[in-house]
Protein 1
Amino acid sequence: LTGDKTTAEAADFLIGKPLSILLIVIIAVVVNRLARRAVKRTLRGLQAGGLQERLGNVRRATPDALLETGQISVRAEQRIEALSSVLRSMISATILLVALIMVLGELGVELGPLIAGAGILGVALGFGSQSLVRDFLSGIFILVEDQFGIGDIVNLDGTTSGVVEAVSLRTTRLR
């Protein structure tokens, strides 16, 4: 408006960049909340609807006394809670990382070397934490496939057995 290049650059630096950063942060928070709600809702929907649709023909031929009540079991509730917690954390971390990179780009930081360094660090951490990743994936499969749950009696190797007290992604506690 004034015709002065220095004033225009100063106004852009003092008003334009903070507004862009604020907009990035607001969008990241909104997307994060929507994604977390969507994960929880999707997992509840899968638990309630997907399996029931596949069993529809069997249910039609089943006596009413043997049909499900429609209530979610405690075990299913625990599985849903554990899986949704993990997925929501992963989504939140991804959204936070993308927002942070975008903010750094707005501040004028060179992103190429930063992303290359993060890639190298990721590969090094991946090799170093293979057992952790393997345990994590095994825990997800245990929860998704409902291999065992709290209160089940399990036999590990013929000599070790017990009642499952807690199941998480990395550990299972027996008594």
Protein 2
Amino acid sequence: VGSGPVGMAAALATPGALVVDTGHELEVSLAERAAAMGQVDPRAWSRKEVNWLQSTMVPSTAGVAAKLYFGSDLAYRSSSGGAHWNLRAGYQPSYAFGGLSTVWGASVLPYWNNEIGEWPLPVEIWAAHYQAVLRETGLAGVRDSLEEILPLHHPEPETLGESNQAKNVRQRMERHRENLSHAGFRWGRSRLMVRGGEKSHGVNRLSYHPAAPLSRAQSCVQCRMCMYGCPYDLIYSSRKSILNWAQEGRIRYQRGIEVEGFREWPDRVEVWGKNLEDGRGWRKETERLLLAAGTLVSTALVLGSPASPTQSARFLDSQYFTVPLFLFDSAPKVRNEPLHTLAQLFLEILPGAISSRLIHLQIYSYNDMIHRLMKQKLGPLRDSLGFLTERAEGRLAFLQGYLHSDDSGTMEMSLNSDTHGTRRVSLLARADPRSRGVVRAALAKLSRHAWQTGFMPIWPMLQMGAPGRGFHSGLVS
């Protein structure tokens, strides 16, 4: 059940499986507009098309808004039937075809071996599974010192261009490698599930469009539009694998099914729900059932099953935070530089004085929302001070960070039914007051080493997400 990344991985390991999914799709009008851009060279885009794509997200100093997909909220849209959700947390269920991989930032890393030693599965078995997934998805990255703690698990990663801002930061850090390493920092180029470089091969179709026409590009063209949705469909989404396998006959895929419950019998599993196209009931029996409908929906289905001993659950979270960065080394003409606008660098803070756990940071260089935000803040002075804006843009970047669950808040789910039999699911966030202290200690450490890293956090603009906002959460067993 589900077509997100977990559903994709399960289908990869289960040839012939039936994958059922609610499967919200991109509105046809938006898909047509995006595909018109994705079937031509970016140099052929009109100003009207670029303005439309950039208008689908509006920057704000109040924090980072939920990422849309060509202006659509399909990744977060609730289903027309089934459970009623009362969400008082940053996390949201996804009923989209491809789940949250529709809007993700494509950053990937393995778990650090030092932090999964207490898990019930031995560390040694993980490498084979990482490799199997990456063979399907592809990986853009480079071999660098980050492999000391986080292996690539891919024999031939593809390459993506590095922005001038990111190169300045990385080269400065390399010049101060000894001091930074002694201080507990590890870093390297980002690792992204994006088609990049000359190693990309095979046909690339626009999986967000119902007709799946051919994309104009087979690898990243550095058009700077990643944050809005890639018109060339080069950022991996699990919908790409599900569609390909269904067309090849390796799996069966049925969209428009909302699973509402299941019951386990000694020799089979009974599953039922609703066909959203005609409103009729839907029922199946199977030898095995894998719930891959996302952390929230899958848990709600388990809590609602007859065998569940409880109707509540607790989730751990990875505290999400963002802060702009002031760069010491300016990069010229960033507004016109060919680049991708996903994460450029990964920076890890090893366990030590700040936390007993790893702290993961991602550095993003220039994207046009920085320019638009500065224009907003300048108001009527934006025209007369335009030259200052352009200079400032070359010195601004963006940091996104995640804490370990030990330093983060939690979420609590409860399930009940009203008098009409409608299932109601409540999700309540419980922030950990210690999280802000750990984040501020991390920023203080970055500030102390600012000359060596080449950047300074702009403290007053720190934003702390509510539990669940980073979509890195998991059920407590």
Protein 3
Amino acid sequence: REGNALQQEEASVIAPLFQTSTLFTYVFAYFILHETLTGWRIVGGLLVMASAVVSSYEPGGSRKIKWSVVAPILVCTAVLAGSSVMFKYFAIQDAFWPVTFWSFAGQTVFGAVLLAIPRIRRQFMGMFRKHPGAVLGINAANEIINLGGGLAARYAALLGPVSLVQAIGGTTSFFVFLF
């Protein structure tokens, strides 16, 4: 869904919207993991939400908020937040590595299901045939970086409040604006 939003809007607008996952994480962690929300976390969450609303504002447009951009991002960020909280929930009960394994196994099955859809498979194969080296090289580099970052973030979430780890991960917006 983030990819569709990026086709409709600039990355500098999407990045702050994507950080609303922190708000969903606060809520899910409060109810599922019983992590408490401090006053500063609530203020920080409100600031994230305010930046998301301001960045999606369309001056002079017929709509004040671009719901075609905001709604898919909110769904995506809620799912990501739920994933982070559920990972911590099960990793606390079991162990980090078995939960990590089953998380990746689930992602593999999901990828196989996506490739079973003819339209998606044709798009993937067409892109692969055009630029096999770039697809493999860029994807391999991306996956190694993503794997390291994802494992570090999930392990950090075991050591502290998952909402805090998610908020620190929210510094992506800063780097998007910096670049």
Protein 4
Amino acid sequence: MPQDSTNILYQTGDTFHVATQDSVHQAIATLPSHNITLQADDNGIQLPEAAGWLIFMAIVFSIIMILYWLPVFWHRVLVMVRDRGLYRQATNLYWQGHSKYNDILAQYIPYYRQLSAEHKEMFLHRTLTFMAAKKFRFIDIEGEERIPLLISATAVQLTFGLQHFLLDYFNTIYVLPNRYRYGESEMAFQGHVSEEGIFFSWENFLAAFANYNDGDNVGLHEMAHALAYVNFMTDGDGSDAGFRERFREFSQTGRKIFEEMQLKTNHFLGSYAATNYNEFWAVSVERFFEQPRVFRALLPELYLAMCRLLNQDPLSEILFLWPLEEA
């Protein structure tokens, strides 16, 4: 149908308005039989005030939604660009020093030595990606190539079963030679996590992996704090919805055990885990990786909850409970 014969009309009182003079006769056929008056609008369609107001509100609403979602969209674009850049950097590092990096990880990280060939390739690439994403600051200690590699590997070990493994909120990791004092605390720290970054005593970090079966590992402990910080203490930069949901399931079991520990002097998780629930979580991670058989035997429900939370079972050859894209 030609554009100038389109049948568009509306009613105000007893008057029907149509867009053109040519459409009057066509409009008559559609009208009721009672007395009415037709009036052609030479200037085109005149919208009623209500319709104009609705269009105005729709435009305002659209502008508000654009302004709201534009930063989110832009952030996602930047993250996508960043991730592609990190992937390229990690790939370059991989091809430049695959054999060297593999040997370092195999020497220091028992978890890595137990992985299948396929999982080793994935683990190494994730480690190099994590390393490329962070700034490593050395305080009173000379930087070595193995330091950022091994610290990155510790983070990847914890998050190996998760989709989000970069702990995005933290841009900087600080490395000190040995125990240090922080803030007003009189206690010497082996490591800690704050909004400033992740901190490690390199001496204690290495010692933890040299004695991997004692259930005490500052690297895993602080990365556990960092993972919780990213998911529960930030505005969502790098957080994992699946992890947060499963952490609530983990806590259904964990809280009961934590409360029981307040009444006992001896426990598999140790007295430090009873300090507060954050330490309970971090110590549970240490025991989960370093003493999985004892953990499963003594605390089977908590062990299973940890397996589901991290989507991995250190005692299983399959390792992952479900594919990473479903984690």
